[in-house]
Amino acid sequence: MRVIVTGATGMVGKGVLLECLDHSEIVEVLSISRKTCGISHPKLKELIHRDFSEFASVAEELKGYSACYACMGVSSAGMKEEQYTQMTYGFTLALANELLKIDPGMTFNYVSGMGTDSSEKGRSMWARVKGKTENDLLNLGFKQAYVFRPGGIIPERGVGPSSKLYRVLINNLKWLLKLMKRLAPDKIVDTAQIGLAMIHVTQKGYDKKVLTPKDIQILA
User: Fold this and answer.
1) Domain count, the chain
2) Is the pLDDT of residue 7 over 80?
3) What is the extent of the structural domain holding 135?
4) What does the alpha-carbon distance between residue 151 and residue 139 come to, in Å, rounded to a whole number?
5) CB count, 10 Å around CB of 60?
């Protein structure tokens, strides 16, 4: 397989990227980001793309891939709804629509979040935006499309959050996440499990489109 990964400069994306690079069935990984992910590997090809609102200008470089693992994301803290919608919904759908034109037979996996509002009508701004993103992706027309709602995430293999605040929290509270994973194993996953689950669902499919932490663990 040849796969595309977005968000490889962030915690989840880098974790997914590492699993893809290690997997024997994946022969090439295209990382799309605004800056280099800082990893050198024979399987890795990087596409530095500044404007995530459009991908038509790089369409030729997106051809020939079996799947896209869309892991890019931002915190809604301090953001107005318009800006958060553009960076969450707009950027994701811009990529998805371009890939759909190229190959509707590919798999599109999207990292969402626990608590997302599928009704798109709740009070929480981020949950509504994520809900609309999920709904529109699942109805876009790909042969396979899946939404990942991982809940709590433990970074593995030296991966760390890009956000300074989240990095401090992880460094100080990783023990708490690991304790929660023991006490409530169906609510916490790690970055390696997310990556493996994305690969396996591409290969084998799954009977659900919206994946909970338990589904991610099963697929991993």
Assistant:
1) 1
2) yes
3) 2-219
4) 23
5) 8
